[in-house]
Amino acid sequence: MKQSPCKTCGACCAFFCVSFPDNETNAVLKGVVPIEMTSRLNEFKSYMKGTNSHNPRCIALDGQVGFKVKCMIYKNRPSICRDFILSWKNGVGNLLCDRARAVFGLQPFTQY
User: Fold this and answer.
1) How far apart are CA 3 and CA 18, in angstroms?
2) Which pTM does this prediction carry?
3) Of all helices (H) and strands (E), which one includes residue 18?
4) Helices marked H in 1-112 — which ranges?
């Protein structure tokens, strides 16, 4: 099985504000995102620490963007991360993925 190119990218984790419904940190509501790695954005949303700034980088991202990275909370990552679609994974490009990669001087993915 081919390794996901995300493991050498990480651009999305260091480009976007990673915000998600606040209940994803609430253990009573079966939330899984570690609350200590989040901050409140507003009454209904939280975000991953480090991502709501001029130079965002998710607190859970380990490694160097474009070389070797991993998510320290992969199994417990927010829904926005789980739902993010890698460009060309399903045979269709993703402009958000391409834009994040471009900021780091990385070419868009052309195939998965």
Assistant:
1) 24
2) 0.88
3) none
4) 79-83, 95-103
Identify the three-state secondary structure at position 111. coil
Helix (H, G, I), strand (E, B) or coil at 46: strand
Which residues does 59 contact at the CB level (< 8 Å), separation at least 6?
A: 37, 48, 49, 50, 51
The whole-angstrom separation of Cα 21 and Cα 50 is 17
Question: 68: which strand partners?
Answer: 64
CA dihedral angle for residue 41, residue 47, residue 49, residue 54, rounded to 10 degrees? -70
Token pair for 108: 């868009």
pLDDT tens for residues 74-112?
Answer: 999 999 999 998 777 777 888 999 999 999 999 988 765
Q: To which H or E segment does residue 102 belong?
A: helix 95-103
